[in-house]
């Protein structure tokens, strides 16, 4: 069987989307979701595999800018919509799309590609490393109390509709983005994604609800959530399913959590996709009644290794020669000297000096946003130290204070 791989044309969009929908089980997207994603789509950056008139493979790449350690927003291809028809799986179609896509991303001059994987086993072979961790939480609010910081009572929490709160929420998101590596800087249209509310996403809960935190009339935070109220003779049994929560200061942050903890007819707060260092775990009285589950989040692929390593800043000076393996993008393979000055600014150049650390591009992708330590990767046998001291120096330089996190899907 032969298939043709080509850039998507306008006329082919519906067939491309149909292939994607079927590959994920055939449950149709809601009309609103479909319209929203169609508006965000960048067809000139999407590719499809065609078997005659049938679309049998899809892959897209949003033109993101991603926050990296130090706060810069670096061009990154946001890989999305990857699928191969069940009739054509395990014949190399995905591999050929990843080949074409990474060549394209390189030709566009974007040093990074990033994605959220449907399954963790798929993308390592293409040089992606899991760089962020998502924390899922289930808090027993009938038992857990919050230690509120001074000023919490001065924050007003008021209801708004998600649609009306959109601009205020975006302003908060935008102010927080530079401090959180892994955050996509949202471009116009993307503000709709966190408030998109198809019935299938509610899991039996209410339509999306929203509250704003305000001080002196200024919005200082927001939370969006679904409610699944329930009760019986023994008391409240319902759940608050938090979709999003962000605040500009500790008092606003605590006020939002206090509101969520106190909603009548509920005894559980569930959160999906919180950052691994979420301060809520430092507010609670009983961490044992907060079930924590960690999973992989954003995967990072250094497409142009030198440009990528120069685009972020570092926590400490370092001068280290890296020996990098990269079978899928061989232009990155070989020795690179990374030199970081006192201000954290880096120069990364080809060298033929003796290597001091040996690793593959996957480990560099995992460590890139500062959330996965090179020391931990070395303990797992995935980084080799060839000069004593090089590992500790590089691990410190690569680390980030805030844990990297990607707050929304794409
Ligand atoms: C960013 C995103 O959009 S993530 C979404 C990914 N899409 C999905 O999960 C939708 C359902 N699944 C699919 O559409 C397909 O099965 C895909 C896209 C995951 C794989 O497509 P295929 O064309 O079958 O992959 P291809 O034949 O190129 O396989 C390449 C290699 O990956 C392996 N592989 C493929 N799928 C998986 C998987 N789900 N888990 C682990 N390994 C996998 C293959 O075994 C093969 O390994 P090999 O190189 O050692 O032989």
UniProtKB/TrEMBL annotation:
Residues 183-207 are annotated as: Disordered. It comes from the Bacteria. Acetyl-CoA binds at residues 82-84, 90-95, 118-119. The keyword ATP-binding does not apply. Homohexamer; trimer of dimers. Residues 3-151 form the N-acetyltransferase domain. Keywords: Acyltransferase, Transferase. This is GNAT family N-acetyltransferase. It comes from Streptomyces atroolivaceus. Coiled coil: none annotated. The active site is at residues 123, 410. NCBIfam families: PRK01346.1-4 (NF002367). Belongs to the acetyltransferase Eis family.
């Amino acid at each position: 069987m032969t298939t043709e791989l080509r850039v998507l044309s306008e006329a082919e969009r519906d067939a491309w989307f149909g292939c994607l929908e079927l590959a994920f089980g055939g449950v149709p997207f809601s009309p609103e979701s479909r319209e929203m994603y169609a508006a965000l789509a960048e067809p000139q950056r999407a590719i499809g595999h065609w078997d005659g008139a049938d679309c049998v493979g899809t892959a897209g790449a949003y033109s993101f800018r991603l926050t990296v350690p130090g706060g810069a927003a670096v061009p990154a291809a946001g890989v999305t919509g990857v699928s191969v028809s069940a009739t054509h799986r395990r014949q190399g179609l995905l591999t050929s799309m990843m080949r074409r896509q990474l060549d394209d991303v390189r030709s566009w001059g974007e040093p990074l590609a990033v994605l959220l994987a449907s399954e963790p086993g798929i993308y390592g072979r293409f040089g992606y490393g899991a760089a962020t961790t998502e924390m899922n939480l289930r808090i027993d609010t009938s038992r857990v109390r919050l230690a509120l910081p001074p000023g919490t009572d001065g924050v007003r929490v008021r209801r708004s509709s998600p649609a009306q709160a959109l601009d205020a929420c975006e302003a908060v998101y935008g102010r927080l983005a530079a401090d959180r590596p892994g955050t996509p800087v949202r471009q116009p249209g993307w503000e709709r994604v966190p408030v998109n509310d198809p019935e299938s996403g509610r899991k039996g809960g209410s339509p999306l609800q929203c509250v704003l935190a305000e001080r002196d009339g200024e919005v200082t935070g927001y939370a969006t959530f679904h409610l699944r109220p329930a009760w019986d003779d023994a008391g409240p049994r319902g759940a608050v399913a938090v979709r999003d929560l962000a605040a500009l200061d500790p008092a606003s942050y605590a006020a939002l959590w206090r509101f969520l903890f106190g909603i009548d007819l509920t005894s559980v707060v569930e959160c999906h996709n919180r950052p691994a260092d979420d301060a809520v775990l430092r507010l609670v009285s009983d961490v044992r009644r907060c079930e924590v589950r960690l999973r992989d989040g954003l995967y990072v692929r250094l497409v142009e290794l030198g440009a990528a390593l120069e685009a972020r800043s570092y926590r400490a000076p370092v001068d280290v020669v890296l020996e990098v393996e990269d079978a899928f993008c061989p232009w990155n393979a070989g020795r690179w000297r990374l030199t970081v000055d006192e201000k954290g600014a880096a120069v990364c150049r080809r060298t033929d000096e003796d290597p001091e650390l040996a690793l593959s591009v996957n480990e560099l992708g995992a460590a890139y946003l500062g959330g996965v330590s090179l020391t931990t990767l070395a303990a797992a046998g995935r980084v080799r130290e060839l000069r004593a001291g090089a590992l500790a120096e590089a691990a410190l330089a690569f680390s980030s204070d805030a844990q990297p996190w990607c707050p929304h899907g794409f």
